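LOG
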Amino acid sequence: MKIAILSRNRQLYSTRRLIEAAEARGHEVRVLDVLRCYMNITSHRPSIHYRGEELETFDVVIPRIGASVTFYGTSVLRQFEMMGTFPLNESVAIARSRDKLRALQLLSRRGIGLPVTGFANKPDDIQDLIKMVGGAPLVIKLLQGTQGIGVVLAETRKAAESVIESFLGLNASVLVQEYIKEAGGADIRCFVIGDRVVASMKRQAREGEFRSNIHRGGSASLIKITPEERSTAVRAAQTMGLNVCGVDILRSNHGPVVMEVNSSPGLEGIETVTSKDVSGQIITWLEKHHKYGKTRTKGTG
């Protein structure tokens, strides 16, 4: 296969591992900075140019698109799809998962476990919003936050009111969620490829912190997940339409609840903790499933 990897930095662990895994299996790989790509949008011969040249046709494109460049990145990916290149994850699915509110609404419609969540822009009664999700302590999130940034734990009603008022004063839309205390500052990252969980790890927040992101000092360890957690992760991935993703789950008193579905999950933590060749499994999946012009979401979806 001729593979294009959309990544802003070929030295990142995840990008390097995908290159190594693909080349070890005899595939040709080219890394493209998505922001350096520009497009000729035409009815009969759509094309992508890169650093002054028209790109050749690729069999597969692997998007490693950061949250800060989602709009342009998915636009470039959509152009690849128009040219018949098979995407590891489709542009519509990535955009769907990056919109936190839309993702939660879609998961809710499928009956997948979620923390009780409120969404507001300018509520007339902040106290009613707080009551709606079960009161303090509660978690307040900015819609645009990533890697734990823009996420606040309000331990009292007064603190919750102050934080919500501050965020809304900045014209920011906020998600307000119940705090799953029994999770103990830990979540489970399930790595899904196709229709199965191929690896999983537990992420534990450091002392005095409730966010378990490894970027924020959290630690990771092996964990054995339950059949219900496995099923929840796969269903969440399928609801988003993602072939490869990381599904973050909390263990609550009422079963597993999904916190987020990550369309561009990092590979370093999961491969280091589990000692599994997740990168190789991604390439193997592409070998079996890639096909010219084969995209699930067509038309104006």
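LOG (cont.) second protein
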Amino acid sequence: MQIIPPKSAIALVVKKGETLRVTDVEGEQIADLVCFNLEDHSEYVSMSHTRVNNQTLRITTGHDLFSNKLNVMFKITADTVGVHDILYSPCNRFVYEEIFKVGPQNGCLENLAAALEPYKISKAYIPDTFNIFMHTQVDENYNLSIHKPLSKKGDYIDLEAQMDCLVGITSCAEDVSDANGGKCTPMQVDVLPAK
């Protein structure tokens, strides 16, 4: 078990057959997740391929996370919430400075880059994230909106690795909108053995 403190990120290895469980410790908290093929970092999770190959904007139990090379990286095997985002990029300094106008602040992009730096993955090569527990909607005019997460204390999602993966995951740093219920709290990560 690892606890990700608020507004930070970790990197870890998940081997084929193992299950990555991400648990919301206090409720209403997002975790931004990226992953790379452990042996070939040019293969990474792709939200565009995940959307197209699952034919939905709302993935949950039974859906797959696809790579940019169209291989399945993770299968969602359990999900107590069922509402996650695969449209938004990770929050970042540009968002805080230019959109929210709150001044310099590291976001999930910068935090993922720091966590993945030992693996020689720089900020420029971090793909769009699977935003676990992030509650977004698209209205009839195709406008995007962000709402409070529906996750409660102890809610979790299980992702079964289909290849050896390097994973970067955050406890989201966004404390300006309703994205994390107005405050940032920890996330818990467990790697469960292969069945």
